[in-house]
Task: structure prediction
Amino acid sequence: MPSTQVLHGIRVLELGDFISAAYCARLLGDYGAEVIKVEPPSGDSARRHGPFPAKDASPEDSGLFLYLNANKKGVTLDITRPQGRKLVRTLIPKCDVLVHNYLPRELERLGLRYEDVKALNPRLVFTSVTVFGQDGPYANYKGYAINATAASATTHRIGKAESYPLAMPYDRGDFWGGLNGAPATMLALIARRRDGKGQHVDISAVEAMNTFNNGMETIVYLESGAIPSRRGHRVQNLYPYAILPCKDGYFALIIANQHHWDRFVELMGSPAWSKEERYLDRYKMGYEYPDEVDALIKPWLAKYTKAELWEMCQSRGIPWHPVQRVDETLRWDHLKARGYWQQVKDGHGRPWSVPGPVAQMGRTPPQRFTDPPRLGQHNQEIFGGLLRLSKSRMATLKKAGVI
Result:
């Protein structure tokens, strides 16, 4: 029976290190692509990053590596050496996509610029996922996730106005680059169906992160010259649009429609202050004196737990939600019911829960997760099978440290 996975039959070659290229390739693998991950013989740096289940854990047990590299085959290959580069060039004609996160100067040194690989495979989709992109004055600058969020002005908007800007957590710049790289790669594959030609897909994490400004920040500046400031726990809008404390944590409050506000006021027992003229204009409350209104609401919120507030709000159609910790999200019945969490095993057979594919597709569903590859696990399948290297040749390359 033919596979129903939307990217079945597409082969992806992943080069690079750490998060951005790996996440892009994993997203393609989630929907059926065959992904061949190339690591140096010492392993991808994500293997040494953790988190680990124990102090003496091996590189096969890194939680970050397990998440990024499910649904992949893994080979070891030192592409900084001539023999390694020769093997990569032999693989390229057999692939539909190449995903990497190298700087232009690194690609030139490796002989793997788009012009180089296009000569080997004109149908190849060549996807670059770097912080600054492949051209422009910053293209050859080394960058990390925090550089992407800082350069995009995203960091400037996070935190309290009177304090430092805050970094986005979880290497968000790298993940966001990969997240944009995967659908862009799919668009290039669709274009290839028209004319049979591949192309270079160039993703800059700075540009991807700049979408967090939603255009609004830029428009405000261009129209008025005002530079939006940080607003901490709230968004400046109709009141309320904020995160406030409750009995056992925090609750996210947002009300766009007046009837939801009326229901909340009634839920609080219609306190006398809510009838005063000052507290009838939610625009002024949100833009001019939101802290003052927070002080009136906080004592009521402090009486109840997140679960109690959730139940009361949902029964009245008020669209608020608890701020969940990671353990609460893992236990959340909603995500469990949707089959979101996937199980993978580390190198010692221990199961881990990792986030699954986001898009649930009815006719062409994503594949169930396969375990991430152990270091060099598929060398024989790829080098011996796909490239037809003899066992003696592979042994020579292994002894030389090439694979």
Observations:
- The chain has 17 helices and eleven strands.
- The chain has a mean pLDDT of 95.
- The two ends are 36 Å apart (CA to CA).
